[in-house]
Each structure stands twice: as structure tokens, then as C-alpha cells.
Amino acid sequence: MASTTTNPASSANPAPAHSSYKPRYIDIGINLTDPVYTGLYHGTQRHPPDLPAVVSRALDAGCKKLIVTGSDMAESKKAIQLAKEYRTVLLPPRRFAGVIYTTVGVHPCSCSQFTTSLSPSTMLTELHALALRASQQGHCVAFGEIGLDYDRLSLCPKETQLQYFAAQLDIACSLSLPLFLHSRAAHVDFFRLLDARKDKLPRRGVVHSFTGTQAEMLELVAGGWYIGVNGCSLKSAENVQVVRAIPLDRLMLETDGPWCEIRASHAGAGFVKGYEEEEEGWM
What we know:
TIM Barrel; 31% helix; 12 strands; disordered C terminus
């Protein structure tokens, strides 16, 4: 889903010689429904809404498709609405079609929404219907973000996460969609639940924002899964070595914006020096 010819952590060589070629990318995970894109930071309005400018800059940089993450029912619906609004984007003299797409699902840290709803089974049915309808309309391209997060059990208990990850995987088995997955400190349970359904999930999908070990990555790759990386995947020297080992045909790129950028303190920061985009000569 991300068009690139080199592994971003494969070397620290300087940028290649300038050419007229401009790569094209798909950002497989970006949170454009976040309030910061309306200028709202922690309840305070800091600037006018700038989502159109963000999308415009992405297109100018060669990122032709943006997949907005659905993290619960409400956010999934917002993402679908964005996909409808950005079905076409006009940036004279060019017109871009199908710029924003979505995922639909409930994040593991939000799975308590099922237990606090009037009817968890009804909510699951509505989630299935939402994903199916959005897929048929050409907006939803993956089911998720679903998975397990044992680093943040304060947001949702482990047993609740396990129950509704399994329930959402069962929904996925009836949809013709790849998965957009989340795993933090939960690989054994995470892979066990996926592997139990491997024959019912032929399209597989991507484990996004990957921060696991090389052994975990290789087990996922062997199972047919893709690995998504962003700044959080490049924090430590160990992270960099894991990314270096990802087979290029299983590597996907994401910003997870407005979070998970590559920061100066990250071990991966040195690998992007010299690759800053030049404004002149790229178009």
C-alpha cells in the first residue's frame, strides 16, 4: 500500500542523486478525524481548521491516498463522511479522485464501549452493517482498528479486549476486507486469535504501528501479514533493526498523524537526514 523502492532503515547513506522521479505513496493510517485538524488542542482553539491544507500538502508530496483510521463507531462514521467529502480534490490544474478512504472498527482501548452499551450484540451487528455498507460504497478498504493493547489496560481490561477482539475477528470473517490491526505487549494472544481464523481471513491485512520484536515480526510475516511502520516503530536502536529486517514486499508506511512522527530523539531520525523534500524540481 506504500510505494517505495528502499527500506527506510536499511542504510544511513545520503540521499540519492536528484532526479525528476517523484515517488507516490499511500498513507495506510492517519487520524484525520482528530480535533487538531479543526485547530482544537485540548479544548482550546489554536488555529482555523486546516484539513484541506493538510490534504493538499500530502498530494503535493506524492501521497495520493490517505486511509483514515476508524477507532470506534463514532470515529468510523466521521471517517466515512470525510471519504465522501474528499471523493475528489481539485488542485488546479489537476483533479485527484478517491483521495480519502477509511477503516471501520473499534480499537482495543475503546472496547469498553461494548460493555457499557445497552446491547453489545446490537452494537456488533451495527458495526458489521456499517463496515459492509461503507465497503460496498467504495469508502472502507479495511476492517479495524482492532486488536489487543496490554500496555494500556487502564483504558480497557484484558478480558474485555480479548472478548471483543475475537468478536470483531468473527465479523471480519464475513467481510471481504483485509484487517487493520493493533498489537502492544500482547503478541502471544494476538497471534493465537489470528491464527485460529487464518483460513477464514484469506486477505490477511497489516499490523500497524509495529513496535514488537524481530521474532514476532517474522512470525507475522510467515503467517501472511503485512507490517506497518511509523515514527513509533523507529524509537530505539532495536526498533530500527526490526524494521531493517522486514521484507520489502511486506512493508507498509504510515504517519499515524497527528501522532507517531519521527522525532529528533528517535534512533531512526538519523536515517531520514538528507532526504528532506526539495520544493524545486519535484513537480
